[in-house]
Amino acid sequence: MTEILIEDEKLPYIWIDITNPTREDFKDLATQYNLHEASIKDCLEVGHLPKIEEFETYHFLIIRSIPQKFEETSDTLTEITDRVSIFFNEKFIITVHRNEIQYLNNIKRADRTNKKFSNTKSLINFITSESLKTFENLVITELNERLDEYEEIVFLHSKRKPFLKRLYYLKRQIDVIRNILALCKDIVDYFHMPEYKNIYTQDLRDLYVRTSTLYRNLSENTSQLLSVYFNIESNHTNEIMRTLTIISVFFMPLTFIAGVYGMNFKNMPELEWYYGYPLSLLIMVFVAVLIYYWFKRKRWM
Q: 238-298 maps to which CATH number?
């Protein structure tokens, strides 16, 4: 669906928005605005990463943002993020996206007298800033809370196994977002060039740096939490093995004694002793007490 959002004599450009694009939508636009076939092809393909390209008569920009909701088990680029493709120069802006995007809808309804709508450079900077804010909002509203919950499970709950899968998906989501943000750096740097630089581009850079830092810290915390989890599980396993080893050390000599006198050969004088049975039990108790005293002295128990 093609919609003309801005066509105002007071503004020096036109803004066209396309939802669920098809090749037919670009039939007239390609000729009218001299759009290159390569950028149209990239626009229609699914899964492109953020980038900015400069053509002879316009620029082509791909940005990604976080949707308001996505599944906890999402771990791919297209599941975690929405894409907006933008063709622009000083005379026009064409935004293209497959899904309804909340921040873009908010911009569409914003007051056109705002300075951010004064020219295409300011509007593109505004759109890019709002897309980056969705990454920051995700950390504040959801990811931090989930990580806090998982930390509580690791340190306080005895049944930790089911949460490992959830923590894996959280780490995957953070890694995917960090990869996207890394590619957004070229876009932010582009808008920070002298010919584009203004107060809004500085805000964009500050937002990018802040968001990147948040996700770097979140990634480090997630990795540390996984490391702590595996250390706790390893220590738990070591404690079990230690207990079993102590038990086996106690029973090895007792089993040896029982095995020797359980052979029942005729020429074993101890078998005829009247007090042989209680004596063997006393020897076993003495050996067990001796092992216990030895373990205590070595501080193994």
A: 1.20.58.340
